[in-house]
From TrEMBL:
Molecular function via GO: oxidoreductase activity
Full protein name: Uncharacterized protein (DUF2236 family)
PANTHER family: BLR2777 PROTEIN, ER-BOUND OXYGENASE MPAB_MPAB'_RUBBER OXYGENASE CATALYTIC DOMAIN-CONTAINING PROTEIN
Ranges for region Disordered: 340-361
Record domain ER-bound oxygenase mpaB/mpaB'/Rubber oxygenase catalytic: where: 30-251
Organism of origin: Nocardioides aromaticivorans
Amino acid sequence: MLGVQTRKQMLPKYEPMADYGFLGPDSVSWKVWSHPTSYVLGFARAVTIEHFDPNLAAAVVQSGGVKYRPSTRYGRTLRYFAMQLFGGAEQTARAADVLVKVHSKAVGHDPVTGSTYDANSASSQLWIHVTAWHSILKCYEMFGPGRLTPAEEDQFWAECAEIAKLQTIDPAEVPANRAEVHRYFEEWRPRLAASEAAQDMIHFIMPLSVALPPSMPGWQKKALAPAMWLMSKGVISTYPRYMRDMANLRQGRVLDLVARVGNKALHAFFERSMNARLALFDLLAPQAVEIAAPAILGIPPRTPRVWGVREAQEHFGFAIPAEAHHDIREKQRDRVFNQGVKPSDEGLVESEQHIGTMQTA
């Protein structure tokens, strides 16, 4: 964790990005995603609610990654989100390309619906994408500065659609405003499942202590326990009632109020203190700090350019994700659905140099 330092002392710790990537400091998304409410509250809300998609829950449970290496899974995922928002264009486009290979192994049979799942499907990727962006914004509004202006909100969702081009998503399917986001979730509601697997994963993640490094001394975990408890209750307070019922999360209005007031105060402190802010980030997702810190600290990139996603993919030689690596994807599907064997780990080792290590600290 970082000691007490001035901003000037912090600057040499981080390398500037090659460029501003796909958004840049004038974007609304930088303001929202760089706020401390994103690091734990928004992210935890997203990765728990995601499990109501039975296909996603099946993929997560059958891969086992969240259960046996939760801290590195958290760190890798947050690093990739940080790259989408703050990373340089080439490194992010490359990571997105590798991620298609990684997701190609997440295919199988969904025991809840009786159908098959494919993590690279456009529908699955859109669910993850919208859930993440909506959760980050909701926590920013509830525990941070409050609602965006209408113009800022329109820009936020337009930027969400642009970043969706890094996934196998049709950007035209991304909701364009608050009303469309609400409609999207209402349309998904009949398809959500409060399965045993979904509830198990939500209850496993929700204490939030799973994100702490396994090597952290016990006394430090105990010292952080009150803050982790408060943030966990804050995440639950953002759930609509029907999702709480589905997840079997019991929390009354009084505790909701306590969680909201407490988290607003806690995250106001993180917003005021750059030391505390980066220490929190470094503690929970050290793999993501080197990507996000230059933006948070205002370190200019080597080239002050903002790219379009499709422009960068073409320039740096990467296929549109929906059209990428069909040979690998078909090979994995053949192994699982025709040969009846496990998918290979193709792409996983390669992903470590781009998305972060899978080894626990």
